[in-house]
């Protein structure tokens, strides 16, 4: 049997919506059904520029799209400040929600979104694409292997890119009324998610922001970092920035092994991605090299990670629609933990880099 095809509506014409709309087209169980903007002209232009199917419904308001009974799910790439309103409205209209990250301005707002989704029986998933790459599952096999990796002791992650002058002045991610979390929300989200992934989603006990964050004139974070500590003694650090060269690194260190990946958010190539690992390495006899040397592992995929994200999300929606399944709560739970740590970093910065206890 061919899969049920989930009909997507896209709320807004953000740059990231170009990538995700292509992903919807590539996913075998999804299709672009409608797009909405604040003006019909903008929706029409966006659909034409991105080669949407000619039968795509075009709407000049988000409300109009959400009123369309044929729309199964919505992708929401709107500024973070608008998430709480439009995600709640979408949930109340019975639309399943693929929500861009960061999911909200704070965990209290996200809890309102989750509550609306639970009450209306709709699936919620955030748009953290790398989680769905088959490489991520392969890396999970290694860090879960007690014999080769052991117990995680430390995680260090980085996501930086050098924004252009236009980006640093005009992008929504530098505007306090649109995406007020700045680099912490945009880039730090990925760092925090990868740390939680490495810790098997166990929340840290303490989060402490690192001194020296950089802000723009409006008070939006351009660069920052933090350290995290768990009750069992494991630690993590991350650095995120709009001011440094493109870097996307994870280092996960266990008692018996080490994992390195240098393109964890967006692979260097769309259809293949690699990672390296070392297990029980030591020095050779003259201490001039390693034995055994780290090994490189290549993972290929026919569908890019964003299409795999759409495919998984659509499968969950299909199960709810056709089999009466309940929404999968794994994804909102992971989103909430990521937001909770992000909130703690922000609070630590605001309070002068003090240690913040993390409570669910």
UniProtKB/TrEMBL annotation:
<feature type="domain" description="Gfo/Idh/MocA-like oxidoreductase N-terminal">
    <location>
        <begin position="6"/>
        <end position="125"/>
    </location>
</feature>
<dbReference type="Pfam" id="PF01408">
    <property type="entry name" value="GFO_IDH_MocA"/>
</dbReference>
<dbReference type="InterPro" id="IPR055170">
    <property type="entry name" value="GFO_IDH_MocA-like_dom"/>
</dbReference>
<protein>
    <recommendedName>
        <fullName>Gfo/Idh/MocA-like oxidoreductase N-terminal domain-containing protein</fullName>
    </recommendedName>
</protein>
<comment type="similarity">
    <text>Belongs to the Gfo/Idh/MocA family.</text>
</comment>
<dbReference type="InterPro" id="IPR036291">
    <property type="entry name" value="NAD(P)-bd_dom_sf"/>
</dbReference>
<dbReference type="InterPro" id="IPR000683">
    <property type="entry name" value="Gfo/Idh/MocA-like_OxRdtase_N"/>
</dbReference>
<dbReference type="Pfam" id="PF22725">
    <property type="entry name" value="GFO_IDH_MocA_C3"/>
</dbReference>
<feature type="domain" description="GFO/IDH/MocA-like oxidoreductase">
    <location>
        <begin position="139"/>
        <end position="259"/>
    </location>
</feature>
<dbReference type="GO" id="GO:0000166">
    <property type="term" value="F:nucleotide binding"/>
</dbReference>
């Amino acid at each position: 049997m061919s899969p049920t095809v989930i009909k997507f509506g896209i709320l807004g014409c953000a740059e990231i919506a170009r990538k995700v709309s292509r992903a919807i087209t590539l996913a075998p169980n999804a299709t672009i059904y409608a797009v909405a903007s604040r003006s019909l002209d903008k929706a029409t232009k966006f659909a034409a520029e991105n080669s949407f199917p000619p039968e795509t419904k075009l709407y000049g308001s988000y409300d109009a799209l959400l009123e369309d009974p044929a729309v199964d799910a919505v992708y929401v790439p709107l500024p973070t400040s608008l998430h709480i309103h439009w995600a709640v409205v979408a949930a109340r209209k019975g639309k399943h929600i693929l929500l861009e990250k960061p999911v909200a301005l704070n965990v209290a707002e996200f809890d309102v979104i989750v509550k609306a989704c639970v009450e209306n029986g709709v699936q919620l998933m955030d748009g953290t694409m790398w989680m769905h790459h088959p490489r991520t599952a392969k890396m999970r096999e290694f860090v879960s292997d007690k014999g080769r990796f052991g117990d995680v002791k430390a995680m260090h992650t980085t996501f930086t890119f050098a924004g252009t002058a236009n980006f640093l002045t005009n992008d929504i991610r530098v505007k306090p009324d649109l995406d007020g979390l700045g680099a912490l929300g945009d880039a730090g989200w990925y760092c925090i998610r990868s740390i939680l992934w490495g810790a098997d989603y166990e929340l840290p006990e303490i989060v402490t922001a690192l001194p020296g964050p950089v802000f723009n004139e409006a008070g939006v974070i351009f660069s920052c970092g933090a350290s995290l500590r768990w009750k069992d003694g494991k630690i993590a650090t991350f650095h995120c920035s709009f001011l440094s060269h493109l870097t996307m690194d994870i280092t996960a260190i266990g008692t018996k092994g080490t994992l390195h990946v240098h393109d964890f958010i967006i692979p260097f190539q769309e259809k293949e991605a690699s990672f390296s690992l070392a297990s029980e390495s030591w020095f050779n006899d003259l201490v001039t090299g390693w034995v055994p040397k780290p090994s490189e592992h290549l993972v290929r995929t026919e569908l890019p990670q964003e299409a795999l994200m759409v495919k998984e999300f659509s499968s969950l929606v299909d199960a709810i629609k056709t089999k009466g399944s309940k929404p999968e709560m794994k994804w909102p739970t992971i989103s909430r933990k990521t937001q909770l740590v992000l909130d703690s970093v922000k609070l630590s910065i605001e309070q002068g880099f003090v240690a913040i206890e993390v409570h669910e």
